[in-house]
Amino acid sequence: MQFIRDYLRNPAAAIGLLLLAAVLALAATAGLLFPDDPLGLAGRPLQWPFANAAFWLGTDHSGRDIAAQIFHGARVSLVIGFVATLIAILIGIVVGALSGYYGGVVDDVLMRITEAFQILPNFLLLLVLVAVFGSELNTIIVAIGVVSWPPAARLTRAEFLSLRNREFVQAGRTLGLGDLRLIFGEILPNALPPVVVYASVIMAVAILLESALAFLNLSDPNVPSWGNLIGGGRSVLRDQWYVSAIPGVAILLTVLAVSLVGQGLNDALNPRLRNR
Amino acid sequence: MRLLTLAGRRLLAALPALLIILAGLFLLLQLAPGDTVDALVAQVGGGDPTMIEELRRHYALDQSTSARLADYLWRLVHLDLGHSAIYGKPVIDVIVERLPATLLLMGSALSFAFAAGMVLGILAARRVNRWPDTLISTLGLVFYATPSFWFGLMGMFFFAVYLGWLPAGGFGTIGGGLQGWALFVDTLRHLVLPTLTLALIFLAIYLRIMRASMLEVSTLDFVRTARAKGLAEGAVVVRHVLRNALLPMVTLIGLQAGTMLGGSVVVESVFALPGLGRLAYESVMQRDLNTLLGVVFVSALLVIFINFVVDLLYAKLDPRISGEH
Amino acid sequence: MKLTRRELLLSSGALAASAFFPPFAHARAEAGAPRKGGVLNVHLASEQRILNPSLRASTGVYIVTSKIIESLVDLDADGKIVAQLATAWESSKDGKTITFKLREGVKWHDGKPFTAADVQYNALELWKKHLNFSTGLQQNLEAVDTPDAHTAVFRYSRPIPLDLLLRALADLGYVVPRHVFEGTNVLENPANTAPIGTGPYRFVQYERGQYIIAERNPDYWRKDQPYLDRIVWRIITDRSAATAALETGQVQLSAYSQLALADLDRLSKNPDFEVTAKGLEANQFNNTLEFNFRRKEIADIRVRRAIAHAINIPFFIENFLYGQGRPGTGPIPSTSTAFYPKDAKVAYPFDKARAEALLDEAGYRRGAGGVRFTLKLVPIQNGEDVPLFATFIQQSLAAVGIRVEITNFDYAASLAAVYKEHNFDIATGWHQYRGDPAVSTTVWLHSGSPAGSPWTNQYGWKSEKVDTLIEDAASEIDPAKRRELYAEVVREIDEQFPIWFAIERDFYSVVSKKVHNGHNTARWPSSSWHDTWLTA
């Protein structure tokens, strides 16, 4: 209860939660409000918003209803964001925690692997993965997760490195707590805040990475993703800027929501800031 | 001397990772549908069987994967990166041509993002939860959420096409024969928009991390002690808070060397910059293995070097971390 | 067979006239006298691996190299053959021997004289062995004799139509210096990226990823030409960035439809620019739909016709392509006056009810969710219209109960998927028509191309009749009979429908109005620009 009160006391965090709820609402009502295929031909292409009562956000370059794509796209973007982030964070935390806690050979091996992934620019690896395995949505999500974990691992490791010699860990050790208990029970909760902040970063990057793939025409064309809409609107950027601006704003607000919530959580989780 | 040995050891330690990457990528791309001859034929709009067969022989694609991989690694041992299929000359020459643009772009974007992120982060943290903080934080989040190609294209239309203040793209005025100061200004003008575009997302990240770690550190005991000792607020910030808050910032630089190169793929293609990012993208699209692996190899050395420097800094900044770490 | 100069008769009066007069220098009245000087900046949409048009035939190579290296012949504004390095030509009665007279007093950029030995080397070593499209065209070339320094006699084992050869040589007849290439590994010759030719401009510099520069050749064989000091090709891969470069004056020309359709539409209203399809008539392209007969539904002619009936091409052209295009009527576009059949028509016009009826008749009734069956569509990436057309196909077929899943590959992968692995049900891309069906169109229809040859018949379809017609036409030297053979091919393709040439498209250029004597040949972006000039 205290935690929720702490969280909500922060107006930015509250706004973030509200925005996120709104995005979830879009995703939830998409099927209800727009039962037709959002990728189907709805009308003449490139109708401006409000120009036609049937399409209040207008139509895109392929004559598809932008509003329908925004609603259905919320699902896709949330799925891309959440799942890819989950994959990345899980890999990252495990690698980072083990590496930072044990040090030595474990650290060396894991860090070499992490380094290997970091040496490869993530977007480049993503391109290679998509070139090799195709651009089906599931493939893209996994690929984004696979290229996004090293920062989380490095961050976790850095936290572990600076925490593992702290007094409370040493105290735990003298009490005879097991490694797992120490890692996940004692150190991880303290190491988590930057990683939580970073989770929102990864989620945002995941959504942006998909839009960059769409910009290069390498995303899955069979799902109504916001990235595809931006990518498609790119050719009419000058005159019908709304085609890419509307999903752009949708991405912006979603990423904003995720970031605000992430930051709010961080502030609320961080006991040292509680009294500020 | 000790530094050199340390660096040498680092490089040695990174060798296995490097080998895994190069071999891994090589094998991964074998799985990709289409090879460099397909890409070439795609570019020229068609070809007949004789020509295609001849080209496959030319690029040694008629040999087995293992033979080519072994050949590649063997040449790599001799520091020979091979011949570029796209450019028809040694990969190392191609990379050396492309390196300046990328280094300049990454360097300027990184410095800008780091400096501005630090300043804004400090400002925000010092006025936490008041309007400057809200403004800066929101701005950061908006920067963060903007797709960079979209920002780049919009910036280009606004500043280059409508206002005519900045060039629309390229890496310098062609055939201008500029020298000295004029060349510097010319390059600078060409770099403004790409730098901003690439730096935007990193600026947002640095800003947030800086703000967070400032807040984090300023509540720690030793800072309180410093304050209690009656040190002036400015001195506390500089001497104690900043120094510790910089730790995660510095870590991030190491982390993001690679990411930035990835980001420059998009930025370089929007602004027609002749850099490594676009080279890498083109070599993936054209299935030019030698060039791709060459770019990866060079950027790997770059990342290893940056991380080495970061670790040195880290040790300097945080006395708790000893020796090797 | 030895020919004296007097005996060297030309095959037609029109050709004779254009051969002996300066081909097109003053064909069209231009405002004012040509001005000397100036730099023409040209948009180049993709990096070129090599700059050698006698090894690589593509518009991307021509747009640069045709200013530096010249071909034996070029086209005039009406698409007729005009002299360039060859000044006259004649075919023997049996169509197996073609004699070219070559221009005298022409020098390579390195100062050596241009002679028949150069042509001989190019024809036998480059055009016949390496050059795409040309290795097929020249497969029956057995020898090139050089009775004197300015006569080249091409000897073929089978008759070759003179019109076909000449039309093809405008693109596939570029001559590079023998003394630079002979005895080297031609694919790795440094002159491939630092070209040496006889053209009005000399190569200066190729800065990878940035620009290519050529400058005026002071020793050019056309006295007092060219007019421009320099040509700079700027490599800009992003379409929007290229438009911005035009609007900020960084480039004055973008050719071969390399800009976004929406930007073309807007630039056509800009008083500083001209958007034109004139001067690019030599090449046309189609948006195609390729069928894979290995899929049993597709192998049914009723399904293929139903698919065509289901797609509203006029609507697509009007609303998606900004009106740029015409419904396709077969493999030969309507602009090809020499070969377009008089009775060509849209074989399967939009008729949704007919499409549904055909599908029902074929036994594919709507099942769960109204879906009859699912097809995998591979867009062969080329320009922005291919993904657009793929989406439209998906939308249109959904309306008649065929679910379409688009599989996005990058360019190389899509070619491999369709033409090598046959991993598609339907595919959509571009067919390019290069003035004569035998150059690059009949390979789309003739059977027997090995898997892995892009833009050939890889549909799992074969027609003995079409194969025979195509073979006959390739060696038929009577133009009227040849035309009739191709008309028969078109009818047969309409009937059997192994591939749909759905939309007929023109290439477009956007050019600043400062450029004069522009677009005055049928392949102007690929011509030598010897008479092009700029207002200050």
TrEMBL record, chain A:
Record GO biological process: transmembrane transport
Subcellular location: Cell membrane
Keyword Cell membrane (UniProt): yes
Stored InterPro entries: BP-dependent_transpt_permease, MetI-like, MetI-like_sf
SUPFAM superfamilies: MetI-like
Membrane topology label: Multi-pass membrane protein
Keywords, comma-separated and alphabetical: Cell membrane, Membrane, Transmembrane, Transmembrane helix, Transport
One Pfam match: BPD_transp_1
Family per similarity comment: Belongs to the binding-protein-dependent transport system permease family.
GO CC annotations, alphabetized: plasma membrane
Domain ABC transmembrane type-1 span(s) in chain numbering: 74-262
Ranges that cross the membrane: 78-102, 123-147, 195-219, 240-262
PANTHER family: D,D-DIPEPTIDE TRANSPORT SYSTEM PERMEASE PROTEIN DDPC-RELATED, OLIGOPEPTIDE TRANSPORT SYSTEM PERMEASE PROTEIN APPC
Name under which the protein is recorded: ABC transporter permease
Automatic annotation (TrEMBL), chain B:
GO cellular component terms listed in the entry, alphabetical order: plasma membrane
InterPro entries xref list: MetI-like, MetI-like_sf
CDD domains attached to this UniProt entry: TM_PBP2
Transmembrane segments: 103-123, 135-168, 188-207, 249-272, 292-315
Membrane topology: Multi-pass membrane protein
PROSITE patterns associated with the record: ABC_TM1 (PS50928)
Keywords: Cell membrane, Membrane, Transmembrane, Transmembrane helix, Transport
Domain of life from the UniProt record: Bacteria
Main location class: membrane
GO process terms (BP): transmembrane transport
Entry's localization field: Cell membrane
Claim: Plastid is one of the keywords in the record: no
Keyword hit for Transmembrane helix: yes
Domain ABC transmembrane type-1: 99-314
Residue runs in coiled coils: none
Family under the similarity heading: Belongs to the binding-protein-dependent transport system permease family.
Protein name, UniProt field: ABC transporter permease
Origin species: Pseudothauera nasutitermitis
UniProtKB/TrEMBL annotation, chain C:
Signal sequence, renumbered to the chain: 1-27
Domain called Solute-binding protein family: residue spans: 80-448
Gene3D superfamilies in the record: Dipeptide-binding Protein, Domain 1, Dipeptide-binding Protein, Domain 3, Periplasmic binding protein-like II
One of the GO BP terms on file: peptide transport
GO CC annotation, single: ATP-binding cassette (ABC) transporter complex
Keyword Chaperone: no
Keyword terms, alphabetized: Signal
CDD domains assigned: PBP2_NikA_DppA_OppA_like_13
GO molecular function: peptide transmembrane transporter activity
PROSITE patterns: SBP_BACTERIAL_5, TAT
Record-stated family: Belongs to the bacterial solute-binding protein 5 family.
Annotated protein name in UniProt: ABC transporter substrate-binding protein
Species of provenance: Pseudothauera nasutitermitis
